[in-house]
Fold this protein.
Amino acid sequence: MYYFLKAMHEDDIPRVQEIERQSFSAPWSANTYRRELSSPATSRYIVARSSPSLPPDEPIMPYVPRRSLLQTLLPSVFTKPQPVSPFPLVGYAGLWLMVDEGHITTIAVAPSQRSQGLGELLLNGLIDQGLDMGATRLTLEVRISNESAQKLYLKYGFEPSGTRVRYYTDNGEDALIMWTDVITEPSYQHRLSELRERLALRLQRQAGMVE
C-alpha cells in the first residue's frame, strides 16, 4: 500500500469524524473542524490517503530526508479549493501554533491501517507544518496509559515535562505533557533526517518499492 499526505479540507470532515469515533471517546463536532480549517495561519490539519498502486502525480512520502517532507502543503494549499480525491482517507492529524510553540492536537489512524507507520508519517507531517508556521518547539498531551504513543514521541525528541491531572473527561485519566527541544537546531534536524531515512525505507518496503 502507498501512502501520501495532503491538507485536510471540509469535504474530508465526515471521514475524519468516522476515524475519530473509532479512535477517541470524545470526538469533535463538524463545526469545530470547520473553525480549525478556517485559520491556516495558526491551525493546520493534514490527512493521510492510501492507494494500492503508485498514484499518478502524488508524492509518496518520505522519499529522502529533508526539512520539507510535505512540499505540497504550502499555505496556499490550505486556502484554495481542492478537487475531491479518489484515494481513501486513512488518517489525520492537527497542530495549533501559539506564538512560537506548536501544539499537536490530534493524530489518528483508521483501525485497518494501524501498525503500518502511518502515525509516524503523520507526526512527520506535523513537524514540517510546525516548521513552516514558525514554531521553534512542539508539545502535546498523551494518556498516561498510552505507552505505544509515548514511545513514538520519545523517538522524535519529545520528553516528559509534567502531567495534567484528570485531563481526559471520559475516564479521568491523567495526561503526560511532552515537549521537544528547539526543532530548528542542527542537532534536532540531524536526528529528524536519520529517522526519516528509516521511515522511508520501511514504507518503501511495505509498498514493494525496495527489497
Observations:
- Residues 186-206 form the longest helix (21 residues).
- Confidence is low (pLDDT under 50) at residues 60-77.
- Strands lie at 2-7, 43-51, 89-98, 101-109, 137-143, 159-164, 175-179.
